[in-house]
Fold this protein.
Amino acid sequence: MSKEFEFVGGECHRALLDHFVGDGYDSRVYKNGDMVKRVYVGSGPKEFSPPGARTLSLYWEITNKAHEMFKDKPLVVNFPFSNEQYDLKFNPFIRMYRCLDCGYIEADSPYIPGHNLSVISGRFDQRELRVVLKNLSHELEDRFEVRGINLESVNLKSPEHRLLIVTDMCSSVAELKRNWWQLLPSTLK
């Protein structure tokens, strides 16, 4: 499967309306066989319009960078109060493109089976999970020199014992930004 960023073409999500999985803050998700399609439609009033192409390109970059970085040797996440450790991996984007039929930017990723961590009762202490995910979000922001990574339990799945998979690194993609010093001309760095 190609992992190159495309900005035209692709199968429109409209063919998948019967396979709706759920809404995110800025996207709708549809199941398509062994893949999911995210459609970046925004939400609510006009101020919550879809994230722009530049922001989605950055999101593509850091998501796939995290996937590559930890696919062979997962990041180990410690839960200090429950004294447990989990391996953490990241679900990559396979394709991202502007749909010629509907005009929205759509993205395809592998489907991860199972429930998200927000609905798995008893397996995780939700307060501890929130703290661990907040700290991990800051660690990833520092590693990738961005702001706006926000890991939430609704965007993590655990298909195997002691394995967590991040299905969405940013609860709101529109909040994702490069650190200000990354935007300076190279002569000023």
The chain has a mean pLDDT of 85.
